[in-house]
Design goal:
The complex is a heterotetramer. Helices cover about 85% and strands about 0% of the residues of chain A. Chain A is an all-alpha fold. The termini of chain A are far apart. Chain B is mostly helical. Chain B has 3 helices and no strands. In chain B, about 65% of the residues lie in helices and about 0% in strands. In chain B, helix 1 packs antiparallel against helix 2 and helix 2 runs antiparallel to helix 3 (about 75-105). By secondary structure, chain C is an all-alpha fold. Chain C has one domain (about 1-80). Chain C is built from 3 helices and no strands. Chain C has helices at about 1-25, 30-50, 55-80. In chain C, helix 1 runs antiparallel to helix 2 (about 30-50) and helix 2 runs antiparallel to helix 3 (about 55-80). Chain C is flat, with a radius of gyration of 15 Å. The model of chain C has no long low-confidence stretch (mean pLDDT about 85). Chain D contains 8 helices and no strands. Helix content of chain D is about 70%, strand content about 0%. By secondary structure, chain D is an all-alpha fold. The chains are: A mainly alpha, B mainly alpha, C mainly alpha, D mainly alpha. At the A-C interface, helix 1, helix 2 and helix 3 of A face helix 1, helix 2 and helix 3 of C.
Chain lengths: ~80, ~120, ~80, ~230
């Protein structure tokens, strides 16, 4: 269990570094996508540890809607949000 | 310094820090949309503190089934649920007014918005 | 055991949120600030789940991930110009 | 520069005050006041398994009505401002990948949002999060197209119908049981089933429709202002 937490935390931290330091807006958008993916995994792990399957709904909402923000950033860079 | 103590107080410290950072941003930033972003940050911090005020460690989420006996306080969660949705509508209003003000004065910098001086 | 792991997770998430909030206010370009505020909102949803509030976590995830980011990006696109 | 220093000083003083206020608290071990009452008797009183939905819709239903009015006035202000003063620009059309995805996914997202709304008394969810999810489906439609939406009257009629339904359901409880927004005007049923908890699912549907139509109205007015000129 500790190994899982360390792996998830390390991945989240690396993506977070790219989010803060990222040279361009596109780098930050990709880093945001990565962090939401890793966070979804962590939410599933929390639902497993607490033993309540209804907490999986939160992970479902995350995975359904997290790409919308990245899509909006892409459309903005493209010039579609004016 | 038990783990429970750290778990409980780290939530409050995060919310408090977000409120203070948002307040600092509102006071010192120049760009009108940056001020709106700082406002949103403070909003998130206030919501965190409100939910934290009904939270007890070692209890379950307030959805009763056969395996759960003690749950956390549902009342602050119900208030925050509506507060988040209202917060995004107010942020939309803020953005619209900011865009109109920057159109009128020709710049998004609040130092150039002469009409807003008092 | 679980409690200490959750404490480590909440402390790490809190530190990342604070650093990201400061970075959102001092970073140069506004679009980067909007992306970073989206990350702060998503991390807040993770903290809401750790505080046993799944309803609030769902609301914050859907609002913060999609709607709030798009509203700010739209406003940024309508202002145009510098910064 | 002087503004930065003054702002930092104000924030530091406020932080010191707040830290001295919360300094001597310890981790509590029991709930207090009305929260304890809700957790003890919530399921028998309302028939809803999810206590948050019970508080939002049944115990504090009048507060929720007021908050829906606040949301209504905020979104009406946005729509009114953008109708009176259009802000012109021409967005570029989306690429074919985005257009194709935005044609397929919104149906599934709307279905998921309806699931969240109607299961609000059984699992995490309810009117507010489900309405936000449905509104993000409409947002995806607008991100993936370049046309101007033309159904605003339809949206506002849905909005007024949902608000009217909320009020009328409240008055139903007032005339039969003598209490505004009492949810037991139809029997509670057995907690944990989808048809239970009185009229909580109906009020959740009304709240969800209202939130979704108001947020969609905000997006549609943003896009409409973008299309002119």
């Amino acid at each position: 269990m500790i190994i899982l937490f360390v792996l998830i935390g390390g991945g989240l931290f690396l993506a977070f570094l790219r989010l803060i330091l990222g040279a361009k807006a596109a780098d930050r958008a990709v880093a945001l996508d990565t962090t939401t993916l890793i966070t979804t995994v962590f939410l599933v792990l929390v639902a497993f540890l607490q033993g309540r399957s209804m907490l999986l709904d939160v992970a479902l909402v995350y995975s359904v809607l997290s790409f919308l923000g990245v899509l909006a950033v892409a459309r903005y860079i493209d010039g579609g949000l004016r | 310094m038990s783990a429970e103590y750290l778990f409980y107080w780290s939530m409050a410290a995060t919310g408090l820090g977000l409120v203070l950072i948002g307040l600092w941003g509102v006071l010192t930033r120049k760009h009108i949309l940056r001020i709106a972003l700082a406002f949103t940050l403070a909003d998130t911090g206030v919501n965190l503190i409100l939910v934290w005020s009904g939270f007890l460690p070692n209890r379950a989420a307030p959805i009763i089934d056969s395996s759960v006996t003690t749950v956390v306080d549902p009342l602050p969660q119900a208030l925050v649920l509506t507060s988040i949705v209202i917060g995004v509508a107010v942020a939309a209003l803020f953005v619209v007014v900011g865009v109109l003000a920057s159109r009128k004065s020709g710049s998004a910098d609040i130092r150039h918005m002469k009409e807003l001086r008092w | 055991m679980n409690m200490s792991l959750f404490a480590a997770a909440s402390i790490g998430t809190g530190i990342m949120m604070i650093v990201a909030a400061v970075a959102a206010l001092i970073v140069k370009k506004l679009i980067s600030a909007i992306i970073i505020v989206g990350f702060v909102s998503l991390s807040a949803s993770l903290l809401f789940l750790l505080m046993d509030a799944p309803d609030v976590a769902i609301t914050e995830a859907s609002i913060g991930a999609a709607i709030s980011t798009v509203i700010f990006l739209w406003g940024r696109g309508k202002i145009g110009g510098e910064q | 520069m002087i503004r930065t220093i003054v702002g930092l000083a104000i924030v530091l003083v406020l932080a010191a005050i707040l830290i001295t206020v919360v300094d001597d608290y310890t981790v509590p071990s029991a709930l207090s006041g009305v929260g304890e009452l809700y957790t003890q008797t919530g399921v028998e009183d309302t028939g809803s398994v999810n206590l948050v939905t019970a508080v939002v819709v049944a115990y504090r239903g009048l507060d929720t009505l007021g908050e829906v009015v606040v949301l209504f006035s905020a979104s009406t202000a946005v729509v009114l401002i953008l109708t009176l003063i259009p802000i012109g620009a021409n967005p570029t059309p989306p690429s074919s990948i985005v257009a194709f995805t935005a044609g397929i996914l919104p149906g599934a997202i709307i279905l998921f949002g309806i699931y969240i709304i109607t299961h609000g008394h059984l699992s995490p969810g309810g009117g507010f999060p489900g309405g936000a999810v449905v509104a993000s489906a409409f947002l995806l439609v607008m991100l993936g197209s370049n046309t101007i939406p033309d159904k605003s009257k339809f949206l506002s009629s849905i909005e007024s119908l949902a608000g009217l339904t909320f009020g009328l359901l409240g008055f139903w409880g007032m005339f039969t049981l003598g209490q505004f927004l009492n949810n037991l005007v139809i029997p509670a049923g057995s907690p944990g089933r989808i048809i239970s908890a009185g009229i909580i699912p109906l009020i959740s549907l009304a709240i969800g429709a209202k939130v979704a139509s108001e947020l969609s109205g905000i997006f549609s007015s943003y896009r409409k202002a973008g299309g002119e000129e």
